[in-house]
Amino acid sequence: MLQKTACFLVIGNEILSGRTQDANTRVLAQALNAQGIRLMEVRVIPDIEDRIVRTVRECSAAFDLVFTSGGIGPTHDDITAECVATAMGAPLVRHEESFRLLEAALGADRFNAARQRMAYLPEGSTPILNTVSVAPGFSIGNVHVMAGVPSIFASMVAWLVPQLEKGAPLVSASWHAAGLKEGDFAADLATLQKTFPTVDLGSYPYHLPDGASGVALVAKGYDGDLVGKAALALHDLIMAHGREPLAGEAAHKQPA
Amino acid sequence: MLQKTACFLVIGNEILSGRTQDANTRVLAQALNAQGIRLMEVRVIPDIEDRIVRTVRECSAAFDLVFTSGGIGPTHDDITAECVATAMGAPLVRHEESFRLLEAALGADRFNAARQRMAYLPEGSTPILNTVSVAPGFSIGNVHVMAGVPSIFASMVAWLVPQLEKGAPLVSASWHAAGLKEGDFAADLATLQKTFPTVDLGSYPYHLPDGASGVALVAKGYDGDLVGKAALALHDLIMAHGREPLAGEAAHKQPA
């Protein structure tokens, strides 16, 4: 099974302005991990037509899968559907089933021209179910377009991602060591990385609210057997530095 | 005064894996806003040499300023300094002042080969002060390289950004309207955007924990006078839809 790569495009000005903090990347990354798809890049770009079209084209060619969030609501700055249509060379057309669903949910009087725009998808798209507020996302080619509002985004990811073709699943194992600092064992970890070239070894310092600190050591890869062996070696590395290796994630739930 | 553009490169696997949520973008974006520098793109990329070198080159050419976070610690996967050196065509050399500072702070016995790597900067760099853990960031050309740990990143931003040449400051004004939905006024907002082409008008739905919801309407731009006029028009737009325009940010502190 081949490893699949993905890119996530966060479209909109609110994260670039510092107004809101992105919460969608983590939701998508975790869902993709479970499906064996590796998130290789995230790009946050503004609501500028030319920038969206160019980035969608570039990323659609460079990665197996592209996911987007934002810009599919009813307002004038919601231009993602038009831009993806242009990028993929498909005209924007009324999607009859989505039109009927929206009309039924909103009632004919509230279903004004602005809201009707949300039923226009690039020709040949498959809608992505929105269980929160009806207006759909859509998939066209290898591009999957979703809403930016976190509750809606999460519902779309939960519906879409399990339907995607699986890649080889990423396996990870970790140990943490209270009181240890990265610089103490960096040379040993570098040596270990050479011993396990196909396993990704990482160290993550943490600082807890109570003042305690330490390092989490993580092994990740697509060969579960090798990841297990590398994790055992991380365990021994911590012991060799006179610390107690602790299992699980509890001690680094609040990384500083 | 010309508007300056910036790109932020978040380097490292922990955000792409869903392990941690990015908190640095917001800190940088707000500091840049205050300095009149506009954050135009964020890219999150993995610890892969070729990807880092290529992205730094591309973004250094495309934006006035580039900021990076992550990958300047002592471990084997901390390769940002080497990659930026390659991208900028400058060899990595020992920075004597940083070397002495680190040695004094850590003590000669703890200042091992792995930690000494943190004193190697691309030739011609200016160090960026680290008031948390001594190991510096650095500026070379238009690229500013900082740590990924949020407390250190924030201290570096606080030291660096006020020293950068100012651009035209971004001015913003907002009103919020409880109970209003984006689709209700989308057509009017689009018309208003045409009236104020140089002001960026946006609407941001919010959902509070107590179940209340509404929309914040925001005007942003580099001409304070025009932003003020646009904000007045937003106020009137809310009134025209039978709602009470409320000032300030209180009602959308917790956007869903």
From TrEMBL, chains A, B:
This protein is called what?
A: Competence/damage-inducible protein A
| Source taxon at top rank | Bacteria
Q: Where is the MoaB/Mog domain?
A: 7-167
The protein's matches in CDD domains, at most eight in alphabetical order, are given as:
cinA
Q: Which SUPFAM superfamilies match?
A: Molybdenum cofactor biosynthesis proteins (SSF53218)
Q: Name one Pfam family in it.
A: MoCF_biosynth
Question: What species is this protein from?
Answer: Gluconobacter aidae
